[in-house]
Amino acid sequence: MAASLPPFPRFVFTVLEPLSLVAGFAGSVYDPAWFVAQQIPQGKPVAASENSILMAHQLGNMYLAMCFVGLALFRTTSEARVIRSYLVALLLADAGHVGFTWYGMGTDRFMDVSGWNAMAWGNLGATLIARLARQLFLAFTRIAYLSGMFGPDRHVPATITIQQKSK
């Protein structure tokens, strides 16, 4: 259970991260055409196709699924080993997320902040920069937790519920 985590990582992984995943879900399903068009800064955003809108909805569903999986894991396991394995998997996914964002935008657009238009600034400021900051913040918190910077995990005894049969 999350109770085995030190307070700071517990707050980050059971409150902040789920809220950010719900925000990603909401943005991608509320206005998927905008979500798609704003992924790469350009003078005239490309119109979203039916395929890209479907993918935006699917991505939103994955954000929500990640939220549910994380909350379910933190609420149901008292095994520090399981939590650590989950956080290592997310840390690898963080690196992939940042890398694929950079790859998709291309180095020139990724680094050329002065070339971003107003819509791109809104999207990149609210989404990409916040996402990168979020990913780096989460990655730092994962590394700090996994390396023991927050102290040892608390030992939370497993509970067993025995149900009596009624006659």
Q: How are the elements arranged and paired?
A:
Blueprint: H1 7-30, H2 32-37, H3 50-76, H4 80-105, H5 107-111, H6 118-146
Defining traits:
single chain; 167 residues; mainly alpha
Describe the structure.
- The chain has one domain.
- Mean pLDDT is 80; it is low at 117-124.
- It is flat, with a radius of gyration of 20 Å.
- The chain has 167 residues and is mainly α.
- Helices cover 70% and strands 0% of the residues.
Quick structural gist:
The protein is an all-alpha fold. It has helices spanning 7-30, 32-37, 50-76, 80-105, 107-111, 118-146. It has one domain (2-146).
User: How is the main sheet built?
Assistant: none
Query: Which structural class is indicated by helix and strand composition?
Result: mainly alpha
How many DSSP H or I helices? 6
Instruction: Indicate the overall shape.
Output: flat
Count of spatially separate domains: 1
Residue-averaged pLDDT: 80
- Helix proportion: over 70%
Distance between the termini: 34 Å
Strand content: under 5%
Q: Tell me the Rg in angstroms.
A: 20 Å
